[in-house]
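New to this. Explain these tokens.
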Amino acid sequence: HIADNMPPSSDPSPEGGSELERLETLTGTLRGKLAAAMARKADGAAGGSDAAELVAGSGLALLELKQLNRRVWELVGEYKEGTQRANAGVDAAELKLQNLQYEKNHFLREITHLRDFRQDAGPRIELLPESEFAAAAPEELRGTSKAADPHQFHLNRLELERRQRESLCGERDARAAERTAAAERNAEKRAFLEGLQAQLASLTTLSLPLQRLLEQKHTQRWNERRTLHLLAPPLRALYVRAVAYRDTAARHLELSIVGNLAEAEA
């Protein structure tokens, strides 16, 4: 209310009305005496003395008139101050009213927006069926039924969906980390095996003179290793793959290198 924001009233007392009435009375009296004095002065010498007495008698009335005039101006100043304070209160109340009106319009727009909101306007979220939700949701999410509070029931279903998706994302990240670690370990083992194969080939080459000296019986694997380094790199790679396929999938497959071994070694 505007009256609540108004400063306390400081209007002049009702004496102001009596002072104004007294001022009007004195003004009328002085006008009458001055008019009588002017009339008597115009009659002659005798009238002039009476006029002087009227003028002298009007001095007290003039003093009282000045006092009343000063008091009237003081009252005018008090009225102006009271009016300014009242205007300040009105301005403050009007500003507050404008702020409240702005907030009211804002809330009305939000209410209209919410009433016009359609759930299917945005991307649709696939939720668990209500039966599965009742079985999978924890106790704090199953406390509200759809009949009692449909909105809260829907929020609880969304919360369960969020928790499940966060859990699945955590598992996905853990599996991705395990896969990365396994790939790194496999790369290290592959590098080790490749280096080991080269070392074995080198040992086989170094052991050939000793095997010849001892006249040991050459096994099939040894013969293959012996002749493998004599092949060109493309043929060597093809032969290694064929041997691997024979050892793992086709035991009946026979592989041999045809040619003069002595000339190849020479």
